[in-house]
Amino acid sequence: MSKMNNNVSEGKVRKKVTNTIVHVILAILAFIWVLPIFWVVLTSFRGEKGSYVTTFFPKTYTIDNYVKLFTDTSILNFPQMFLNTLIIAIFTCIISTTFVLSVAYCMSRMRFKMRKPFMNIAMILGLFPSFMSMIAVYYILKAINLAEGSMIRIALIIVFSAGAGVNFYVAKGFFDTIPKALDEAAIIDGATRWQIFTKITVPLSKPIIVYTILTSFMSPWLDFIFGKVICRADAQYYTVSIGLWKMLEKEYIDSWFTSFAAGAVVVSIPIAILFLLTQKFYVEGMSGSVKG
Known about the structure:
The protein has 292 residues and is mainly alpha-helical. 74% of the residues lie in helices and 0% in strands. It contains 13 helices and no strands. It starts with a helix and ends with a helix. The relative contact order is 0.13.
């Protein structure tokens, strides 16, 4: 009996030591992950100008960096860049989410010729980074007069959303977990495919819908390469990623570095808001899909 108690106590001690080590490692990793974000936030309130400083913590604090970001439009018009990006991201999010969910539902629920070859081709195409095609895409857009003036926004929306349907694999995997018996019961009751999709599949698929919305919104919001290639030197249609990059060029970095940090904080706000607004639907949808 005493030996058994000793084994139990040793097991508890070993478990406690293991948990302590794991928590210490996780705390260190969390600190490493949060430190750059913390530094950017501090820098956005720093009173000293320039990118080279001798101290980690700012000596003085000010909100002038945020004020300059939205009021000083003589060189870099950040409000216009922010508006351009918001418009592109919203339309891209709507179109891309529609494409991804539609293709994923068809691949999951329907059977037709060339289905498997199409899925294989889509998987292979997904292995290649999208920027490999940027030169070809630019010349195609230029040939149909979408790379000049106000059409640049439409061009960027097309670039970010037109091929979104290829990224259907994650959503398809989720749709596959929804019992097909629900669809069959609805068909017996006289429901159409559209009614099955909107009244049965979508309510049970809120987690993947939220995931698709977030990724579709973040893609144009964070993109730099396609925006830079298509916008070129037309600053009126720059996105925020191009604007932040311009702030780090040698002629601007001394006067705009702290505003760059402020811009980085501002850029993260819409994504944070979108996540907070959709988080409850994610949790509700997850519990609903489990019950289903």
